[in-house]
Design goal:
five-stranded mixed sheet, alpha/beta, four-stranded parallel sheet, 38% helix, 300 residues, Rossmann fold, Nucleotidyltransferase, domain 5, elongated, single chain
Length: 300
């Protein structure tokens, strides 16, 4: 989508957007209806709505879903005129829509087909609702509107669904304000703990294989989170490091998830490179780590 950007905005002025199509695939299907509603301070100011006459074949299931018939489409306008008038209506306003990748994707492809530029910023209420209401059974517009008790329900027609999206977005704005946070704060990645801050919280027998060592973890441990594993060895006198350096004494290797496509991590590679230069960093796997912990526990 080139210059388009999904934004985390709480806006007083925006344009709500919804389209209806002949199917889900932007390479095969086409837009049959475009709806857009200009909003200021939660109140509708103006709307744009058109059916598209040159959609071609209209699947029966789409008629059943939307109520749109071929006869209705024949009274619409051609795609080129529809997209041109829509872009003129939107100008450079920020758009708000539910499941933006669908609407924005179809509109971008259609605009490109006629050599028009469509690069408006947009806000996706699907993205926001997933973050704010993670316990909802799904985040389809109909489900979210039902669980929030909104006054409107989607009807698979562009303008009606725009108005539901407006009500949802206004509710989201209130929810964020009531929580006393910003959207940037809600979407900020979880704090990654600095393992160097972990220190012993219990007394320990110094006669153990981890005492006084500078230790680095890589991969995922079988029985503990990385923080929990770090705390275990810190409680045995180890000093935890985030990364391998010349001070490192031991690297403990967990497993890697298949999607990570990792066989040897960068931390292990660096430890091996340092060892090749004369350093003596122990590199142990998760099984050995737990064996040594068990041995210590049995002795104490």
């Amino acid at each position: 989508m080139s210059n388009q950007r999904s934004k985390l905005y709480l806006l007083d002025e925006y344009i709500a957007l919804d389209i209806e199509t002949t199917g889900y695939y932007r390479d095969l299907d086409v837009i049959i209806e475009i709806g857009a509603v200009r909003i200021k301070d939660g109140i509708e100011q103006e709307r744009f709505n058109t059916l598209i006459s040159d959609a071609g074949y209209l699947p029966e299931e789409i008629t059943e879903l939307t109520g749109i018939t071929e006869e209705m489409l024949s009274e619409g306008i051609e795609t080129e005129k529809a997209i041109r008038e829509f872009l003129s209506f939107c100008a450079d306003n920020v758009l708000v829509c539910h499941n933006a990748s669908f609407d924005i994707g179809f509109l971008t492809r259609t605009a490109e087909n006629y050599s028009y530029s469509f690069d408006n910023d947009y806000v996706c209420t699907l993205r926001l609702s997933r973050k704010l209401y993670p316990d909802f059974p799904s985040h389809k517009l109909k489900t979210v509107s039902f669980h929030l008790g909104l006054s409107k329900s989607p009807e698979h027609r562009s303008i009606s669904d725009c108005l539901v999206t407006v009500e949802l977005y206004e509710q989201i704005k209130k929810e964020v304000k009531n929580r006393g946070v910003t959207l940037d704060e809600l979407f900020r990645p979880a704090y990654k703990q600095d393992l160097r801050e972990i220190t012993a919280t219990t007394e320990y027998d110094p006669n153990n294989p981890f005492n006084s060592l500078n230790i680095v973890f890589t991969g995922t441990l079988e029985k503990h989170t990385r923080v929990e594993g770090a705390q275990l060895v810190a409680n045995l006198g180890a000093k935890i490091q985030n990364n391998v350096n010349k001070e490192t004494d031991m690297v403990i290797i967990g497993f890697y998830k298949p999607h990570q496509n990792i066989t040897v991590s960068n931390k292990v590679k660096k430890a091996m490179a340092l060892n090749a230069k004369g350093k003596d960093i122990q590199i142990i796997d998760s099984d050995t780590f737990y064996e040594w912990l068990d041995d210590y526990t049995q002795r104490n």
